[in-house]
Amino acid sequence: NSPGGLRDIQTIGWITKRHFAADNISMLVPRGVLTEREFKQLRDGQTFLWRVRYGLHMLSNRPEDRLLFDHQRELAKIFGLEDSEHVLAVETLMKEYYRWAMKLHTLNNMLIQLFDHAIIRACEAETIMEINPRFRLRNGYIEACNSRVFEKTPSAMMEIFQILARRESIAGVHANTQRLIFQNLHIIDDDFRADPKIQKRFIELLRSKNKLARQLRRMNRYGVLGRYIPAFGKIIGQMQHDLFHVYTVDAHTMELIRFLRRFWYEEESNTFPVAAQIVKQLPKVELLYIAALFHDIAKGRGGDHSTLGAIDAEEFCTLFSFPTEDTQLVSWLVKNHLLMSAVAQRQDLQDPEVIHKFASEVKTQEHLDYLYALTAADINATNPTLWNSWRASLMRQLYYETKRALRRGLDHPTERQNVIINTQEAALAKLGTKGISRTQAEAIWGKDNDEYFLRETANDIVWEIETIVKQGDTKQPIIAIKDSQQTDADGATQIFIYTPNEDLIFTVICAALEQLDLNIQDARIFTSSNNYTLDTFVVLDEFGSAIGDDPARVSNIQETLISILQDASQYPEAAKRRTPRQFKLFAIPTEVTIGLSDDHSQTVIEVTTADRPGLLALLGRIFASFNLNLMNAKITTLGEKVEDVFYLTDDNGGAITDPTLWHEIRSAITSQLDEAVQSSSH
């Protein structure tokens, strides 16, 4: 029933039987309704879909007409496909499926339009309006003035999409002209691509203020885009067999451009305030769209797709005779299109060294603006669930901190010690207005706790210290919760925990939060000199949102955490929830990278592994077994896998540098996590 499925072919067959009294679609060829090429395409596409359908029936042992994710790997085996060096067998199968689906759906739409004109509207008067010597409007649809228009004037192949973008009232491309486009795709060759007149039309199309995304989608469906940019033609139907990338590469690219266009709409300024402001100030918006077209163009080739795509983008810009600075900008954007999201989600944005390093990579405000717009659209176009208020706040924070760093000048970075002193003094000043003295505050946060003032804001410190002071000398753990409207961590919920430190405290808290259906996005772990935790967990609910104004929910979280933390030796069962069914289809070996932070004060452990219930709690136990102190954690979930980053110190507060110990930690993490995956898959 999906677009490009058997139902599309059956629809054509039913019309053939009803209107033309023909038993077989092939009988439409001698009547001039179908061309030989179109009939062959329908027949070959139907054969492929029948094979897929029969394979599904074999696998499920029942009538199953849905190409579910669960069946795709096994179906690829039935088709005799094997993994290659760069592409999985299932990806090869699905690429063929998606290509057939697009061809058949496009052909079906064209034929339905032909039938509509020939059958339903046959007796209606036609309205014809000339546009220029090459094109006219017939009943609201653009059509070629003669059958040789593309032969005689190759640039008309690009001009038609320009006209469609300029005139919002045009209903679409007339079926006969669609057919002409398919028949003349061969004219799009090297000479066509190098023609300055055609290049100018393409750039003018990219500058269009109306329906750009729609025209690029149409160019893709008709085969024009894949011919004009041959590297793009290779990614049509290309998919990645995971739960993170929900679109084929070409569909994702079209979706990305659609989001870039959305940033221009006034009604989107509340949803995407930073991007909406940026795009209207970009000097050459066409460069942004070219970077979008090329950002994933090298996927499926092997190697770093960002680097390979940057080379393709540079060649394209050179062919178009772009100024050197424009070519360099587009190539840089493609090469670095993952940089901003990686820094925002995986690094500590409170650390001035992180900001300075990123600003040094970006170098200019123009680069930052283009990169932000591309990154925001890319995240939104990858997976509908990926962009949430928390990720948006991280991106916004990184953008504005970098903007300030660039204004200040890369030769004048903010010193860490200045940040620490300024934050501490600002917090003490605000606490003083609330009747809390320096002595009271220092008794809580202790001495020599620079990291606390480096990674917490003054407002958050005031909130935490005030909460502790108000509680008095209570013997039970102190739990404070505030939502995005009250916190600097906009778009999420902060849970602050003040309690005596225990070896497995992080493990216990992670297990408890998981039982509460809360997903940890960020964790800032501090221990005062009197051995109390000053821990902040940034969480989202199971729907990716902040907890909101729900007193009953907040009370339940506080009561649950207090109950568990009062006896931290009672380790709660973390993995009570089942591993999601689709997660069990992936055997993702755990990868662990260990290194040092930029200032060498902490050890950084990056863990890429399969997502599963109880993961953070298990990692917490492993860290505790090596007497490692967790200082910070950045949690990133990408479909069926996670890419988590942990900042740790040894018992003396320094970085772990012993290579032998690194090896032991890495071995413990990989063996225990992979063992947990195997047990959860049964």
Q: Which features does this protein show?
A:
682 residues; alpha+beta; nine-stranded antiparallel β-sheet; four-stranded mixed β-sheet; 10% strand; elongated
Write the layout of secondary structure elements.
Layout: H1 6-20, H2 36-60, H3 69-78, H4 89-120, E1 128-130, E2 135-138, E3 141-144, H5 149-152, H6 156-166, E4 172-173, H7 175-183, H8 190-194, H9 196-206, H10 212-221, H11 224-228, H12 230-234, H13 249-262, H14 273-279, H15 285-294, H16 305-319, H17 324-335, H18 339-346, H19 352-362, H20 365-382, H21 389-408, H22 416-433, H23 438-445, H24 450-455, H25 458-471, E5 478-482, E6 493-498, H26 505-515, E7 518-524, E8 535-541, H27 551-565, E9 591-596, E10 603-610, H28 615-625, E11 629-634, E12 637-638, E13 641-649, H29 659-680
Parallel strand pairs: 3-4
Antiparallel strand pairs: 1-2, 2-3, 5-6, 6-8, 7-8, 7-11, 9-10, 10-13, 11-13, 12-13
Task: Explain this structure.
The protein is α+β, with helices and mostly antiparallel strands. 53% of the residues lie in helices and 10% in strands. The chain is built from 29 helices and 13 strands. Strands 5, 6, 7, 8, 9, 10, 11, 12 and 13 form a 9-stranded antiparallel β-sheet that branches. The chain has a 4-stranded mixed β-sheet with strand order 1-2-3-4. Strand 1 and strand 2 form a beta hairpin. Helix 4 packs across helix 7, helix 6 packs antiparallel against helix 10 and helix 18 crosses helix 21. It is elongated and about 95 Å long. It starts with 5 loop residues before the first helix and ends with a helix. The model has no long low-confidence stretch (mean pLDDT 90).
